[in-house]
Each structure stands twice: as C-alpha cells, then as structure tokens.
C-alpha cells in the first residue's frame, strides 16, 4: 500500500514561490503516472500537473508556465515548483497517481496572500 506525505507549503505573498515535496512509501513510482492535485475551500479537488511514465509533464491551463513538476524515482519523491504564485493558487495540495488510485495523504496547505 502506497502512502504519500506532502510537505513544503506555507504562506507566501503574491508573486512568490514555493517548492512542494511528496514522499511515497510502501511502493515505488514505477509504472504509475504521478499527479499533483489541489483543493481550495468549497471546491472540488482538481488535477494541476501530471508526470507521465514516458514523456513530458502536463499542466492545467491555470498553472501552465508557472508550475513545474518533477520526480526523483531513486528517492520516491515528487516535487512541484510553484512560481509567480497568485491568490487563486491558495489550496491544500496533494500528490497521488493519475488517475488517483491510492489513499490520499494529509496534503500541504499553500496560502497566497499579502
């Protein structure tokens, strides 16, 4: 059973940057596309980035050009570099496979506010 532990969130001003990490235990990423998701208050969870098994990462239109997802398979860790953050990026961020097939972790809160 895979378990995810997200970290790296915090409070940042608009235009700032954060780097999120997601450490997986219990299994490896091999064979799974990985995704970063977020859930804002009173909204449904949405997929913002996908790292496919083969090929380049894909992004939601709302984060294209600002977010970069990457993976370190040797460390079983997925990263999300978030630049030029906007207030609408405020949410709890999670990682999971894409499509999501494992239990959700606790997520990490990102708050973008002046």
Task: Output the keywords.
globular; 4-stranded antiparallel sheet; 114 residues; mainly beta; 10 strands
Walk me through what this model shows.
- The protein has 114 residues and is mostly beta strands.
- The chain has no helices and ten strands.
- It has strands at residues 3-7, 10-12, 18-25, 34-39, 46-51, 58-59, 67-72, 77-82, 91-97, 108-112.
- Strands 2-10-9-4-5-6 form a six-stranded mixed β-sheet, with no helix packed on it. The chain has a four-stranded antiparallel β-sheet with strand order 1-3-8-7, with no helix packed on it.
What's the gist of this structure?
The protein is mostly beta strands and 114 residues long. It is 0% helix and 47% strand.
Low-pLDDT segments: none
Mean pLDDT: 94
The neighbouring-strand order within the major sheet is: 2-10-9-4-5-6
Secondary-structure element pattern, one letter each? EEEEEEEEEE
> Which band does the percent of strand residues land in?
over 45%
Shape, principal axes of CA atoms: globular
Report, as a whole number of angstroms, the end-to-end distance. Answer: 40 Å
Based on CA atoms alone, the radius of gyration comes out at 13 Å
The percent of residues in helical segments reads under 10%
Helix-strand category:
mainly beta
* Number of distinct beta strands: 10
Number of helices: 0
Summarize the main sheet.
6 strands, mixed
């Amino acid at each position: 059973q895979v378990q995810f532990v997200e970290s790296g969130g915090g409070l940042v001003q608009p235009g700032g940057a954060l780097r999120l990490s997601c450490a997986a235990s219990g299994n490896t990423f091999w064979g799974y596309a990985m995704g970063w998701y977020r859930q804002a208050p009173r909204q449904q969870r949405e997929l913002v980035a996908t790292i496919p098994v083969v090929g380049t990462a894909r992004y939601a239109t709302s984060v294209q050009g600002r977010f970069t997802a990457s993976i370190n398979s040797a460390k079983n860790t997925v990263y999300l570099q978030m630049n030029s953050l906007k207030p609408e990026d405020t949410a709890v961020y999670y990682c999971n496979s894409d499509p999501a097939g494992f239990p959700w972790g606790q997520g990490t809160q990102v708050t973008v506010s002046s």
